[in-house]
Amino acid sequence: MDINDVRSVVTVLGLVCFIAISLWAFSGRARKGFDEAALLPFSEDDLPAAHDGRQSKEGNKNG
């Protein structure tokens, strides 16, 4: 077995992994999880703290 045989085996294994991941990503079972993950940036769980109008010492340039 020479280096070209090893390269061929690695290429075939890479192709098999790519096809397996592609089939998993487009399967119906994974769709629900992906749909939920796609909406995460729009969730309202991480709203910023309410600003009460006070400035910090660093932000106050008058004094």
Provide a brief overview of the structure.
The chain has 63 residues and is mainly alpha-helical.
Task: Report what the structure shows.
The protein is mostly helical. The chain is 54% helix and 0% strand. It is built from two helices and no strands. It has helices spanning 3-25, 28-38.
Structural class: mainly alpha
Any idea what the shape is? elongated
Our estimate of the beta-strand percent is under 5%
Tell me the number of helical segments per DSSP (H or I, 4 or more residues long).
Answer: 2
First-last Cα distance: 79 Å
What string gives the helices and strands in order?
HH
**Largest sheet data:** none
Overall mean pLDDT:
83
Q: What level of helicity do the residues show?
A: 40-55%
Q: For the CA atoms, what is the radius of gyration?
A: 26 Å
Uncertain ranges? none
In terms of topology, how is this protein built?
Elements: H1 3-25, H2 28-38
List keywords for this structure.
elongated; 63 residues
